[in-house]
């Protein structure tokens, strides 16, 4: 009698975020069923009520903000053989990183207009600032084709390295007219590809939700800005939306 192969146990967790990346996973339908043949999902708050602390592969969505979140993600790291940060909130801190521009009191005053709320805003961080991350799946939200490709590769033991070339490459392959030609500032030249140039293909500029390339062509981006008459500050404002944690970390050494 052949021994049945043990299925990989997968768990999804969320921290400070909108849960949009989890929602993306629920949209996978047939593609997700294909993956499920080889694994059991044992935690997934968006889609099921069962819970288990026995898992091999943990997907962490959201940025880490409060002390309680820090302790929770450390426990997840202890339990999981492999930890994957998925979505911009987890990979770069995402939009939550903007909170680092203000003190907790200032942020609360802006959001709640001076009214008192006993909520702890905490200090938003990408997951790797708190625990070791094995793999990253970028984006806000994550791209389902990339998600399935990454999960298959991780389950096969090959790991996953996200693309390390610019969004402009995918944009050019789609034969889009460059948005700089239409008077808009775009982060595509220095942003990690993998989304299929999602935003420029629908006429919106890239805000770098997938974060910077490992070795971004900053001089190339500067040359483009100069050619079209823009300043670095106009670019920084866009970059800030998803990458404030990185900007703050670099500023503070
Ligand atoms: S990365 Fe974007 S879609 Fe995903 S949880 Fe964060 S805010 Fe939501
Ligand atoms: S629109 Fe943006 S992503 Fe597309 S080619 Fe121009 S700069 Fe690059
Ligand atoms: S084009 Fe830029 S902002 Fe849009 S999904 Fe891709 S990386 Fe994110």
SSE diagram, text form:
Elements lengths: L7 E7 L5 H7 L3 H7 L2 E5 L13 E5 L5 H13 L2 E5 L1 H4 L12 H9 L22 E3 L6 H12 L11 H7 L24 H4 L16 H11 L3 H20 L2
Parallel strand pairs: 1-2, 1-3, 3-4, 4-5
This protein binds iron/sulfur cluster (3 copies).
Fold and architecture overview:
- It contains ten helices and five strands.
- With 253 residues, it is an alpha/beta fold.
- It is globular and about 60 Å long.
- It starts with 7 loop residues before the first strand and ends with a helix.
- Helix content is 37%, strand content 10%.
- The protein has a five-stranded parallel beta sheet, with helices on both faces.
- One iron/sulfur cluster (SF4) binds next to helix 1 and helix 4.
Assembly state here? single chain
Q: Write down the overall mean pLDDT.
A: 91
SSE order: EHHEEHEHHEHHHHH
Tell me about the biggest sheet? 5 strands, parallel
Low-confidence stretches: none
Distance between the termini: 60 Å
- General shape: globular
SS class: alpha/beta
Lateral strand order in the biggest sheet: 2-1-3-4-5
Residues in helix, %: 25-40%
| Computed Rg | 20 Å
DSSP summary, beta strand count:
5
Report strand %.
5-15%
> Number of helix segments?
10
Spell out which ligands are present: iron/sulfur cluster
Could you name the key traits of this structure?
253 residues; binds iron/sulfur cluster; alpha/beta; 37% helix; five-stranded parallel beta sheet
Give a short overview.
With 253 residues, the protein is an alpha/beta fold. It has helices spanning 20-26, 30-36, 67-79, 88-91, 104-112, 144-155, 167-173, 198-201, 218-228, 232-251; strands at 8-14, 39-43, 57-61, 82-86, 135-137. It contains ten helices and five strands.
């Amino acid at each position: 009698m052949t021994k049945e192969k043990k299925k990989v146990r997968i768990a999804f967790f969320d921290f400070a975020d909108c849960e949009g990346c989890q929602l993306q996973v629920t949209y996978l339908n047939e593609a997700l069923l294909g993956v499920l043949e080889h694994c059991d999902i044992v935690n997934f708050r968006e889609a099921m009520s069962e819970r288990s602390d026995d898992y091999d592969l943990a997907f962490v969505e959201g940025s880490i903000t409060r002390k309680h979140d820090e302790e929770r993600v450390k426990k997840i790291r202890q339990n999981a053989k492999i930890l994957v940060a998925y979505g911009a909130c987890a990979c770069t801190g995402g939009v939550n990183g903007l909170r680092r521009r203000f003190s907790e009191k200032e942020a609360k005053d802006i959001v709640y207009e001076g009214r008192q709320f006993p909520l702890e805003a905490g200090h938003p961080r990408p997951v790797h600032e708190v625990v070791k991350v094995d793999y990253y799946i970028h984006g806000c939200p994550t791209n389902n084709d990339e998600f399935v490709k990454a999960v298959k590769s991780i389950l096969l033991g090959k790991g996953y390295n996200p693309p390390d070339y610019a969004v402009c490459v995918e944009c050019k392959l789609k034969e889009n007219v460059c948005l700089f030609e239409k008077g808009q500032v775009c982060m595509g030249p220095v942003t990690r590809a993998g989304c299929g140039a999602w935003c420029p293909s629908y006429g919106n500029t890239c805000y770098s939700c997938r974060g910077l390339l490992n070795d971004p062509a900053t001089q190339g981006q500067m040359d483009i800005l100069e050619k079209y008459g823009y300043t670095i500050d106009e670019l920084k404002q866009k970059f800030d939306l998803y990458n404030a944690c990185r900007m703050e970390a670099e500023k503070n050494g």
